[in-house]
Amino acid sequence: MNNKYLEISALTKYIKYKFDNDEHLRKVYLKGEISNLKIHSTGHLYLSLRDEYSKINAIMFSSAAKKMLFTPKDGMKVLVTGRISVYEATGNYQIYIDEMLEDGIGNLYIAFEQLKEKLKNEGLFDSAHKRKIPRIPNRVGIITAPTGAAIKDILSTIKRRYPLCETILFPSLVQGDNAKDDIVRNIELANNYELDVLIVGRGGGSIEDLWPFNEEIVARAIYNSKIPVVSAVGHEIDFTIADYVADLRAPTPTGAAEMVVPNTSDLINYLNQLKIRLNECINKKVKYNELYLDSIKNSFVIKNPLIMYENRKQKLDIMLDKINNIIAKKIDNFKVKLNYIKANYTLNNPTVLYKDDIHKLNLLVEKLELLNPLAILKRGYTVTYQNDKIIKSIKDIDTKNTLKIKFFDGFIDVKKVGD
């Protein structure tokens, strides 16, 4: 009888098995509002997701939570992806979240942060690339919608502060899918004009309304602009990618106009200050020169001009003495060198220079004497000729002709005996 009754844990395991093996529950997509959020010291997130009629418990482990690009808060609307299972200890079913995104605005925020990080890493936000806004511009370009509060505020502010400044409006779409291309086209067009500065912006709105100024092509067009760009998008709390790339960020369109042109009254005050400072500088310069002139007039040298020549003469005498001393030392040095040369042993005994050469010459003469054929003949040797040729062998003698024998002191003819 008791075998019909299950333990609670057994029932829970069975229900969990059914949940885990239902393919429709292995990956579900839910949207709802966060409540009862608790962030554990381990990094796990425990929360509830609710809509107008129901709620479900949820857990997101730290490995998945680290991938989020935003910080979840109670009341935040989110989109989650995960699997449905049962927590056996309580018997409650819950969703194990693998991915969480902010609902609507959250997706845009993620795209904003991703593009921001990309362009930052490329150096588009670096201050080294920021150009200086002219203090007193002559011509200001404005890229915004031709109607609305933004253009009215910019024009009225410029006219009120500095009416001498010329303004050129480049009417542009600032909202919607085609706005980004229109903004880029107008930035490129404005660069063909001789502008001192370019205001790019619009009035306030939702993040979707301001999104064209978060587009990459707009950011790159601002970065590549040869004209300094002031970004004036939305309200003071609104920040767009254009604000980071621009050379100067204005909190509002009106603020942009105030940053771009000076106030006429401020200019007048500034000119008056410059006038005062200039007069003070001139007066100081005149007084300084007057004092300097008086000091020259009262100087001892001016009152006694001959002293200048006396000093010059004395310096000249000193220089002449130095020159004479230098010349005398040079002459003495040359005399010492000359005496040294005169006393040189070789100079006084020139035969020393060629004594070795004479010895070498005598040796060569002796060697040549040894090789001289006449010397050989003096020792009793003779040379026999026949028909003007030296006879080297008895076989070469022609008995029919006369022989000629050379002695050291002459020749003798020898004829065949009996001839």
Tell me briefly what this model is.
The protein is of the alpha/beta class and 419 residues long.
Strand segment count: 14
Mean pLDDT: 88
- Terminal CA distance reads 179 Å
Q: How does the helix and strand content classify structurally? A: alpha/beta
Determine the fraction of residues in helical runs and give it as a percent range.
Answer: 40-55%
> Which percent band covers the strand fraction?
15-25%
Number of helices: 16
Which regions are unreliable across 5 or more consecutive residues at pLDDT < 50? none
Rg over alpha carbons? 58 Å
Report on the architecture of this protein.
By secondary structure, the protein is of the alpha/beta class. The chain has helices spanning 8-20, 23-26, 62-65, 105-122, 149-161, 179-190, 207-210, 216-224, 241-245, 253-260, 264-297, 300-303, 306-342, 345-348, 351-371, 373-378; strands at residues 28-39, 45-50, 55-60, 77-87, 92-102, 139-144, 166-171, 197-202, 229-233, 248-249, 383-386, 389-390, 403-407, 410-414. The chain has a five-stranded mixed β-barrel. The chain has a five-stranded parallel beta sheet with strand order 7-6-8-9-10. The radius of gyration is 58 Å and the shape is elongated. The mean pLDDT is 88.
